What does this fold into?
Amino acid sequence: MPFHNQEIAAAFEKLADLLEIQGANQFRVLAYRNAARTIESQPKSVADMIDEGEDLQELPGIGHDLAAKIREYASTGRIRRLDELEREIPEGLSILMKIEGLGPKKVKTLHDRLGISSRHDLETAARSGEIARIRGFGPKTEQKILRGLSTAAARSTRIKFITAHEIARAYLAHLNALKAVRQAVVAGSYRRKKETVGDLDILVICEEPGLVMDRFTGFEEVSSVVSRGATRSTVVLRSGLQVDIRVVPGESYGAALHYFTGSKEHGVAVRKIAQKSGLKINEYGVFRGEERIAGRTEEEVYRSVGLPFIEPELRENRGEIEAARRGDLPRLITLEDIRGDLHAHTTLSDGKNTLEEMVEAARSRGYEYLAVTNHSPQVTVAHGIDSTVLMKQIEEIDRINERYPDITILKSSEVDILKDGSLDYPDEVLRQLDFTVCSIHYHQHLSREKQTERVLKAMDNPCFTIFGHPTGRLINEREPYEIDLERVIEAARENGRFLELNANPDRLDLDDIYCKAARDAGVMIAISTDAHSVFNLGYMEMGINQARRGWLEPRNVLNCLGIEDLKRRVKRVST
Ligand code: DGT
Ligand code: CA
Ligand code: CA
Ligand code: ZN
It folds into this structure.
């Protein structure tokens, strides 16, 4: 049974967590974390690579020892070193580390002093005020832990889109291998490209439902069969994800797809319109009395209520039905509309590939431009570079631009916005750049007032171009920081600045709601991968998903512009 990259990566993350709790060398911990990210971002299954005799040490950051551990996991499903650590360290501690406000040191202290080794222990201790009494903790930390616990409790059941995507692809391939299957799709929130997915809803057209059910429950990832019926079943996978399936006849397919794609709110709204004209819509079709008048395609369903087709990403009952009625639906952006990437790192700061490797990868994606945005000095954890090194990079970019006439490398930087709202390079240095991506990395817990003022002040600097990952959230891990984004969007509109939609699948920051708000305010968005390797450039697809949920059209997106228009747009607005 081959192991998914996700699974192998998780083992390495766990190894890193446990080593960190044990107080191991930071570099070793980091090496394991980087390995996890490398494995996770491989487009190809690492287990397959081993089978095909590929050398894992060719992968960025994978040395002899890590390669051996990957092979060990791929062939046995375990890593001995991890087993040892798991015996030495109580099970719950690595889970506690994920709670915001707790790091490895604090977790270890809590365990040593109060015997805390589970979320339950932690909550009880925090509520009774015991934690506040430990040196180095205090009431503030205790409050933070309680807040962290409540957000951690709320999440845990929804998985990130990219993980759902990997599983969905494998499941569909498994089902499609059955000859009798005429069509198999995943509906639900997955088809709406929601950033997190509660469960998968598979829809199949097939004349022989029994065969489909056998095939469905026989998928190698299935850990338990919750229910099995003639045309519908539910299973739970090893990862804990639930998957529902329904088999329908071709004549109902459009109606079923519409019903199970949701959202529920959108479905209800469409059915209401139908009722007004004496029709009934359900998952079997569109009916006038007993007669089925439509249902084979989704287009038919919409047509029966006088609407044009509405893209799944828009189906949240957030104005799409009204827009469809007015003939005013957006022409949603697609991957093909993207002409370049405006946020990417190289080995000069914390990237895994050299400038040239990144340029080659951008060229092979057919891009017209790529911006190099390494970190500024303040961001020491990500090897921020000082002015001198930045100047050297600018010279290197000049040389590379001469060598590659078919792509423009833009000189840029991911400039840290300091606590007081100033930018992390002197203005005369910033003026050497084509544009900047300015983002927050420290002091994420300021009050809403202060955080907003900080960003507004930064935006007053004529060298500020794009506001990078505007809320700092990490999906399922870190809440967005307190900031008045509506004021930020307003200021961006007034000063000709832009907001980023960071396409990293852990971030997807801006979210769909604020993408639409920016669009409605006339502020353009840069969809950027924040790539730290050539593989990460592929995250653009995830950014496009979110952008579509945010109603973005090519005209709303900065990196849909050709290079000349782009340069004009990002020119410093006042100097
Ligand atoms: P999820 O799984 O939480 O990420 O979100 P969905 O949208 O995939 O929700 P799910 O899996 O519960 O149901 C799939 C679709 O089926 C949902 O989007 C709309 C439809 N559906 C489910 N339950 C109901 C219901 O009670 N009423 C109506 N009208 N539609 C429903
Ligand atoms: Ca679902
Ligand atoms: Ca479901
Ligand atoms: Zn970045």
User: Anything to note?
Assistant: DSSP finds 24 helices and 18 strands in the chain. The longest helix spans residues 5-21. The first strand starts at residue 159 and ends at 160. The pocket of zinc ion (ligand 4) is lined by residues 343, 345, 414, 530 (CB under 6 Å).
